[in-house]
Amino acid sequence: MKLKTPFSIFNNPKRDIDRLNKVTYVPTPKKQSKLREEDLNNHLTRYMHKQTGDNKIICRYLGELHTEARHEHSGYSIKTDAPRDHAGKGESFSPTDLLATALGTCFLTVMGITAKEKGWKLGEVTIEVDKTMNKEGPRKIEALSLQIKLPPGLSDEQIKDLQEATRDCPVLRNLKDSMKINTNWRNVKMRNKTFLKFLPTNIFRETPQVTFFDAGVKGSNGSDVVIHHGNAISPPNENDCEQFYVHQHQIDHNLVLDGSRTFTLLNPAWNEPHHIIFLTKRMGALQIPMGTYHRSVSGPQGSMVLNQAVRDRQFDPTTEFIPVSLRNRADLRQAKEAEPILWVYEEGQIRRLKIDNLSIVSKGITT
Fold this sequence. Notes:
With 367 residues, the chain is α+β, with helices and mostly antiparallel strands. Helix content is 21%, strand content 39%. The strands form 6 sheets. Strands 9, 12, 13, 15, 16, 17, 18, 20, 21 and 22 form a 10-stranded mixed sheet that branches. A 3-stranded antiparallel sheet has the order 3-4-5, with no helix packed on it. A 3-stranded mixed sheet has the order 6-7-8, covered by helices on one side. The longest helix is centred in the first third of the chain and has 24 residues, at 95-118. It is globular. It starts with a strand and ends with a strand.
């Protein structure tokens, strides 16, 4: 590109900003041949914005740990206060709240841009951002968890477009290497479906006191053995408050090898959001879908479980095992308060038991 001007706008920016109206922007002839008239105007606008500092933010300290930030171009202002756990009163956003807010609003913005470019209207999308601060070392954000609620009526292709757009979020690119970031897409059209199943094992040989069985899971690309010594809880409670794991890029298939283990599953997107599974080896491998919150407890004798996981390309062990506390999630507390669906093994069958007005409705499921 060429600038036709009697002075250099790079040698004295302060002087030149006042004289930018005299600057004529002239793309090269080759560039002009490729741009339509409206493209030239947009190109010039982007150039002028870059030179006049539209992205400048003026921050002022107001006293008593309060600050004000003003967007110079629009004149819009926001105020902050230090959080209650860090010498403040929590009367407004804290600075780290704004960082979390930046990620959520950036997701919404790129989704809106994508919908506009593709010519379809995007209804109301809400994102709940849960910020977790570190407990040791210099104070910083340890993790951000995003619960994304989409409007009804979106096609699978539209949802895919929105998910791909968020992966190109500029804020995400800046933050993903400095903290753990989890996203959970709560697709409204799947809200009424409860998806839970058991994969049976195949016994192919038995000799006296010896059993051979196939524990393989189709598509599994990761496996781990989880041993509970005594009545262990995973993940452990935090100050007497239950915590849960959730995987966004891994499907679990938990097969008991020794002992028994009780799993509690919560999924606010299901019409039956609360399940308790008394898992034994005869029930096969319990499949835990992505986005389902789970915890497990063993009896006094402990237990051993083999997990044959199916992981997608975005799986990262540093972000897939962050405990989520019920204290910080109203939707999980509500799911936990729902009447649980009980799963047990009785008379050679997996039985699904529903507590209904203190009576138990049983449904047998043959493996």
